[in-house]
Design brief:
Its main location: membrane. The protein has 296 residues and is mainly alpha-helical. The protein has two domains: 78 residues, no CATH class; 171 residues, no CATH class. 57% of the residues lie in helices and 7% in strands. The chain has nine helices and eight strands. The protein has a two-stranded antiparallel sheet with strand order 1-2. Strands 3-4 form a two-stranded antiparallel sheet. Helix 1 crosses helix 2, helix 4 packs across helix 6 and helix 5 crosses helix 6.
Length: 296
Amino acid sequence: MRSRRSLLLGPARLCFRLLLLLGYRRRCPPVLRNLVLRWRYGKVCLRSLLYNSFGGSDTAIDSAFEPVYWLVDNVIRWFGVAKTDLATVSICKKCIYPKPARTHHCSICNRCVLKMDHHCPWLNNCVGHYNHRYFFSFCFFMTLGCVYCSFGSWDMFREAYAALETYHQTPPPTFSFRERMTHKSLVYLWFLCSSVALALGALTVWHAVLISRGETSIERHINKKERHRLSLKGKVFRNPYNYGCLDNWKVFLGVNTRRHWLTRVLLPSSHLPYGNGMTWGPPPYVTTAPDSVLAV
């Protein structure tokens, strides 16, 4: 078989080489010379385009294992479906690491944070899976403390403010330097506590609403876009991490029994949140299962 091929290809190669040699001579017709040059240019271009595709080791290995891939794809279906508990993760484009669900990259900390809510400049840290409860507890009890100071110092604030109004009267009041500083400090204290109570109270209420819905600040914007996008298609978006208002608070605060409302919520506690931040299955004490993501 090989001898027959050599007999056929030998004369063809010889004729082709003769044409190439004649192409470089001036006596060769211009048409034939242009044809040979174009053939050479086309051959160079073809090799340049296909060299990396057919010369790489990955392509050769994939081509060699193509029968194995076909065999696996067509035979594995007969063995049934295997259930795995592996978490499906994506890759972060900035730090090039696996990024689980509800994980986002913080540009300030330059790292990925599990269940990231936001980056708090006052704490100089990101609020995520392991410190979200501490952040909300800080906001809540700080608001209660400011409200307590505002209401508790209301009478002293009125007296100090009335004394400040008498400073410009004639004759001026006979207050000592210590009394003047006390009046100004009481007024400043009341306005500071009241303003912090309003601002921090609004932030606490906002986060309480998000916790009741089972979402973070970042997920709120993502879910809002998804609701709008799916509403145009006649579909309804369901948050897969929403277990109901009460169960969402149980998961967030780590409350398993009634006693935990006292030991883990009202009293200081260092218990870890439920889960590892990689997978987000419903806890065993959740009474309602999460809804599907899409519902027609």
